[in-house]
Amino acid sequence: MTPSCWPLYGLSVTTPRLELRLPGLPLLEELAAVAAAGVHEPGEMPFSFPWTEGSPEQRARAVFQHVLGTVAGWRPENWTLSLAVVHDGRVVGRQDLTARDFAVTREAQSGSWLGLAHQNQGIGTEMRAALAHLAFEGLGARALTSGAMTDNARSLAVSRKLGYGEDGLETVAVRGRARTVRRLRLDRATWERRRTVPVEISGLRPCLELFGARLP
C-alpha cells in the first residue's frame, strides 16, 4: 500500500521492540488472523462493544471491516487511527487512537488489544507508550484518555504504569448486563515526567492536516 493518496499509510511509530503502522491488506489479513485466534479467555468480556463474540471467522471479519471503516469514514473533526502492532516481524495486536474535534480539544482516547499468544510480555505497555508519544509529541495533544472494566486488572495496570490517573466511573450495558468502566486520564505534564520508552515517529508531517493538528 502506497501513501500517495492516503499519507497515513506512510506513518510509522517505532519503539525498541515494536512498530505501529496503519495496515495495508497483507498486514490487515494478519491482524484479522490474530483476532480469530483469540484475544481473551472464554467467558471474559473486557470490551464495552462485544466484538469478540462469535466464531473465529466472525472475529476476523469484524477486525477487517473495522480498520477499513476507519479509513473510509475519516474526517479531521472525527477520526480513529487503527494501527497494527508488529513485533519480530509478526502482527500481534492493534492500538487505536480516536478523537473528535481534536483541533479544538487537543484530547484523544486510546484503545487496544493483544492476541492471547502475545500477552504478559510487556508488549501492551510498550505499544501504549508508543501511542502516547505520537499523541503528545507528534500531534501536540494536551491529554490522553482511556478506560477499562473495573475487573480488567492488566489493562488498568498498564495505564497506571504510564501515569494515567483516575477520571471517574461509567456504567455501560454489555450483553444485557450493567458493567462498570473506570475512566483514566493522562495529561501532558505527567507524560513528560513518566515516559521511559524511546519512541521514533516517521512520515507524520504529510498527515497532520488529516488529524486537525499543527506542526509542532
Automatic annotation (TrEMBL):
N-acetyltransferase domain mapped to chain residues: 26-197
Gene3D superfamilies tied to this protein: 3.40.630.30
Name by which UniProt lists this protein: GNAT family N-acetyltransferase
Cleavable signal peptide: none
Source organism superkingdom: Bacteria
PANTHER family, per database record: RIBOSOMAL-PROTEIN-SERINE ACETYLTRANSFERASE
Entries under InterPro entries matching the protein: Acyl_CoA_acyltransferase, GNAT_dom, Ribosomal_N-acetyltransferase
Pfam families linked: Acetyltransf_3
